[in-house]
Amino acid sequence: MTDRTAPVSASGTRTRIETLDMLRGAALFGVLLANLEMMFRVPAFEHWIRPGAGSGLDQAIRMVLFGAIHIKTLMLFTMLLGFGLAMQFDSLAARGRGTGMLYRRMLALLVFGLVHLFLLWNGDILTEYALAGLLFVPMLHLRLRGLIVALCACLALYILLPMVFRPFRLPPLDALSAHVDAAAAAYGRGDYLTVLSFRIDEILRFGPLHLYQLPRTLATLLLGAVLWRLGAARLFTHPDRRVALAGLLLTAAGFALCLLPGKIGALANATLGSMLVALGYAALFAWLARQHHVRPFLGWSSAVGRMAFTNYLLYSLVLGFLFYGYGLGLMGRISTSTGILIGSGIYALFAVASLLWLRRHAFGPFEWLWRSMTHGFRPG
Questions:
Q1: Is residue 138 part of a domain?
Q2: Is residue 245 part of a domain?
Q3: Is residue 247 part of a domain?
Q4: pLDDT digit of tens for each residue in the chain (380 aa)?
Q5: In the chain, fewer beta carbons within 10 Å around the N or the C end?
Q6: Helices (H), the chain
Q7: What pTM was computed for the model?
């Protein structure tokens, strides 16, 4: 990842913005914990039909996960992808090169996403990123005002689409409850072929839910591009107290919207409210990461962020082994608090592994493969 505001090395290449790597790694921690709780510890949709299960501690943890982490860290992760793609687009444009590389990058990501979606985990986000990215890249030709208009249009489409056309409807509660029980049996006790068969059936039945989320994903990518065009890269390299204050205000405003009663709060949580919180998290993290007495405690996430693609894929592989029947079959057998401990342990192990790997290699293994597929040659 390059940055036009970052210092230039002797070779002419710009250095990475380490704070962005740290932020991406921290966001991935939140994504890991939310995914573990929502779709590995128990089947998807179980929280919809049995939201109050577990001890008081478990319920408190879930309240934090769903209220402060789940959508917020996913939006933060998506926003950083849009930020990075906008950086790459402007770098290519400055050198007089076209956008073919970015399209190849998204098509390669689509291949990874489909393999991940069908063979490992149907909660995959890479396929959606690739499809949204193919729509996002041509929008990068727009000026800042055009990007903002496109962002608002995508949010409006996400909000208004269900009022005109419902691409996805949940089944009735009794049918959904029966599906959750069947999922627990298939995923928690089935062999790999049983899990694979049930996963494909779920993709066919619930796939439109991913399509419904596409406008929101595209809007979040556009938010990242807007930040880049506004010069936010400098805020990650030279944040001051105004950045911290802005982070506090954005976070407070976002949570205020999310906590509004009824459908308004639910809609804010799915859109603008969570976007504001994600922006607030980014600003606060950028400021904290530049504080000498805090930076050592946040630096562990840098290597995870540099290998975010590899780590995301391997998380699914490890969680599948832990929770599915072809592995340890822990689905439905542990509490939320135990799941948090397991997720934290996985993250810590992968953080150490990422650090050790990057001491010997320039890229993570799947980052290397992604670059090879994009450029058609083996990167150094």
A1: yes
A2: no
A3: no
A4: 333 334 333 333 344 688 899 999 999 999 999 999 999 999 988 988 887 777 889 999 999 999 999 999 999 999 999 999 999 999 998 888 878 999 999 999 999 999 999 999 999 999 999 999 999 999 999 999 999 999 999 999 998 887 777 666 778 888 899 999 999 999 999 999 999 999 999 998 888 887 889 999 999 999 999 999 999 888 888 778 899 999 999 999 999 999 999 888 999 989 999 999 999 999 999 999 888 888 888 888 999 999 999 999 999 999 999 999 999 999 999 999 999 999 999 999 999 999 999 999 999 999 999 999 998 766 65
A5: C
A6: 18-35, 46-49, 56-64, 70-94, 100-119, 126-139, 144-164, 173-189, 192-229, 233-237, 241-258, 262-270, 272-289, 295-298, 301-306, 308-323, 336-358, 365-375
A7: 0.91
Q: Of 100, 97, 84, which Cα lies nearest the Cα of 134?
A: 100
C-alpha span between 351 and 26 (Å, rounded) = 11
Q: 206 is written with which tokens?
A: 């619930």
How would DSSP label each residue in 210-263? HHHHHHHHHHHHHHHHHHHHTTTHHHHHS--HHHHHHHHHHHHHHHHHHTSSHH
Residues 188, 324 contacting (CB under 8 angstroms): yes
Beta-carbon contacts of 341 under 8 Å, excluding residues fewer than 6 positions away, are: none
Domain count for the chain, please give it. 1
Residue 188 exposure: Cα atoms within 13 Å on the Cβ side: 17
Domain, as residue range, for 70: 19-238+290-375
181 lies in some domain: yes
Among 240, 226, 233, residue whose Cα is nearest residue 6: 233
Q: Which of 225, 230, 261 is nearest to 139 (CA)?
A: 225
As a whole number of angstroms, the distance between CA 154 and CA 160 comes to 10
Give the span between the Cα atoms of 305 and 139, in whole angstroms. 26
**Rg, Å, the chain Cα set:** 20
